[in-house]
Amino acid sequence: MLRVDRSNVILYCERWAETVAFYREILGGSVTADRGWFVEFEVGNGSYLSVADAAHASITPAGGAGLTLSWQVPDLMTARDALVAAGVDVSAVHRRFGSPVVDLHDPEGHRIELWSVI
After folding, report:
1. pTM > 0.90
2. Which of 5, 25, 43, 84 is 20 to 30 A from 32 via CA?
3. Is residue 118 pLDDT above 80, yes or no?
């Protein structure tokens, strides 16, 4: 199996400024790199999420299709309550694969699944 020391998901976005603001201001992402049209956030130990402005990239954005960011959080209800207070449309808590989960979308339409261990 291939050994991976660092993981980074890159989202190519048409609504770039709004998406960067969402990850920085709403989700509280820690910026680890800012290249003007490409911003990288640390989302966990060794895991990163980058938001690239599609107008400056050679890769076409998918408009949120076919991608789910699935993140385990320590306290699902606290995370959900904070997002709702920030005006984010978050689903009610439901179960998926035996765990409590909520779903939301970033401004580009990418689905974000937050879940906790039972």
Report:
1. yes
2. 84
3. no
